[in-house]
Amino acid sequence: MRIGLVGAGWWAREVHAPAFHGAGAQIQGVYAQGSPRARALAEAYGAKVYEDYGELLENVDAVAIATPDAAHVPLALEAVRRGRHVFLEKPVGLSLEEARSLLQEAEARGVVAMTALTARADWGAETAFQVRERLGEVVAFRGAFLADYLADPQAPVPWRGRLAGGGRAGVVGDLGAHLFDLTAWLLGKPLEEVIARTEILFLGRENPDWAGILARAGQTWGSLELSRVHPVRPQRLYLEVEGDRGALRVLLALAGRAEEAAVFWSERPGAWEPLLLDPGLLRGRNPREPWGLFHFRELVRRFLRAIELGEQPVPSLREGVVAQAVIEAVLESSLEGKAQEVEGV
After folding, report:
1. How far out from the chain centre does Cα 244 lie?
2. Are 255 and 234 in contact (CB under 8 A)?
């Protein structure tokens, strides 16, 4: 399988490239318009630097796109229209409209397309998914993704904080895609309505630093929080789900090593007790590997397997577009100051 890496930043270098290489794919080339890092990344894998995206597409079977959000859909659409499979970073795009256009094109062309929703390959989250039936009827949920990558008010603002790179979503797109997908996955039903408030907390940013959200899935309500300015390290992504029989709490390993993920169970009433992580879910991965690479080894395995079998992987592009619909609803709710239904995909 010939892979083209699109983007040459830290994430492409430390996660995308080694995950695909480790899975046995051939890294054919790197396209990263204007990036001085493209050559070093290509040389590390005996690949070629392409200055023309169309030429790269002529020489690969699939692309892995790790660029600023604004470029996701244009790059993916061009690949899909040429019959190339797509492994795409989240969020899918800058709007639900453009994300839907990509999904429609991918489904019409019959290509394999995956959204890199990292929680789906987390050791703790997968363990929690296996035991979620213990909850009984779900009655409430709460979760948060708290990160510090823009916690310094005086630091230069990267592309994620600019409309030209990260669009209007800011933290809602960057971190919300993970939290919204994790929540819907563990609940077993989509988020259907939100009441949200977003805020830019420091000068110089052009999109939200923080969001507080009340969300409904079916008849169940819960609270979610997103922050890219949380002052305390390490970053944390967690979700608690309450049922009429007890509660689950999952702490994902999105900092440090993969083995630092944790799952807890409480009776109703009771106290948090740790659950053993299922070793069968490692699927040959090393739990002492750093977060990101550990997760992507499994995502890439699923992606390549789906291409081999001619089926869609999990999480697919569709799951990414479902998360995009929640992102859009949160932004609209905050803008209009009222509840917003999440559009179906």
Report:
1. 30
2. yes
What does the pLDDT look like over 97-113, one tens digit per residue? 999 999 999 999 999 99
Tokens coding 162: 């600019």
Tell me the pLDDT band of 255, cut-offs 50, 70 and 90: confident
Q: Is residue 343 domain-resident?
A: no
Contact 174, 228 (CB under 8 A): yes
* Amino acid occupying residue 295: H
Phi, psi of 118 (to 5 degrees): -60, -35
Question: 114, 102 in Cβ contact below 8 A?
Answer: no
34 pLDDT band, cuts 50/70/90, is confident
CA gap 177, 9 in Å, rounded: 20
Residue 111 CB coordination number (10 Å): 21
The token pair that represents 128 in the structure block = 């929690």
Q: Say if residue 151 is in the same domain as residue 270.
A: yes
- CA 2 to CA 28: how far, in whole Å? 6
* Structural domain for 163, as ranges: 119-287+323-336
Cα 46 from Cα 37, distance rounded (Å): 15
